[in-house]
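Technical annex B. To support the medicinal chemistry partners, we prepared a structural model of the target in complex with alpha-L-arabinofuranose, based solely on the information shown next.
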Amino acid sequence: MKSDRTNRVSIINVLLIGLLLFCLTGCSMFSSVVEEDPSAEIDSDLVVVGFSQLGSESLWRTANTASIQRALTKENGFFLVFNNARQKQENQIKAIRSFISQRVDYIVFSPVTEDGWETVLLEAKEAGIPVILADRMVNIEDESLYTTWVGTDMQEEGEKAGRWLEEYMQAHQRTDEEDVNIVVLQGTPGATSQIGRTIGFNTIADRHENWNILEQVNGDFTTAKGKEVMQLLLKKYDNIDVVVSQNDDMTFGAIEAIQEASRTVGVNGEITMISFDAAHEALEMVDQGLINVDIECNPEQGDKIAEVISKIEHGEEIEKAYVIEENVFTQKNVKEYLDTRTY
Ligand code: AHR
């Protein structure tokens, strides 16, 4: 009897600890993403902006949401209606339609993938609501369906990764005869960041006959999927020299998988790690030498979006695209940025 009760108590303890851990990790993942409150009265004296964010899959995404929420505040003259689409295009389309029926002044949205936006963007245009694309792009013929885009040059990010690997191979005297075996963990298929980084990196890879891309697999921009696909790749290939991981979250998962397979990563390891985003946690791993290079994708896009809306409000001319500046981090320069990093 007593041992039954002891067992029950320990099971309850385990469940409570599990719940606590879930709240510390899972709950906090979403806590900085404030949902739209359907009962909140829109203050139409302010500039009303409907913002459809594609999800909260990564550290980058959370930072991007926070940047836009920080810029489009009441104090700055905005009323923000926020919606998190949880990675589903149909949720984004629903949110945009709801913004149209609420007659918001502007729609800002980060499209989860590039295709399939014509109809809903035409509806926004017919309703006379300017659409500002943030972060990712849409693939449409009629460019008048959106007003402007604020984001980063994803293809250039991919090229930067390739150029860094070129220099690294030269510095390590790896000759052109020696094979360099590469696997690529890609982000959400059809997303601008996946398309751009893939094209960019492959452009450089094509110049090198000895760069052997063993496989490019979908890791969905998440740590869990990154780990899962890396485990499969390690079972399939025992000759991986380089992992190109299209965001930090997948990199975290990939490093876990590699270390669990008793292999080593980074500056002094067997497998060279190339990552994208440059979130604070990843930059610490650059500093520790676990990630060789991190190509920045800058999520701080809120101020630019606020500035563009204010320009439109004042009847000023605006550009069709605004590209946010970014950096490349290695062990050589990372220390000077670690303290001031906002995400
Ligand atoms: O589109 C930007 C990408 O989306 C970031 O690299 C990634 O972390 C995010 O999920």
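Notes passed to the chemistry partners:
The pocket of alpha-L-arabinofuranose is lined by residues 57-58, 60-61, 135-136, 193, 221, 247, 276-277, 297 (CB under 6 Å).
The longest strand covers residues 211-218.
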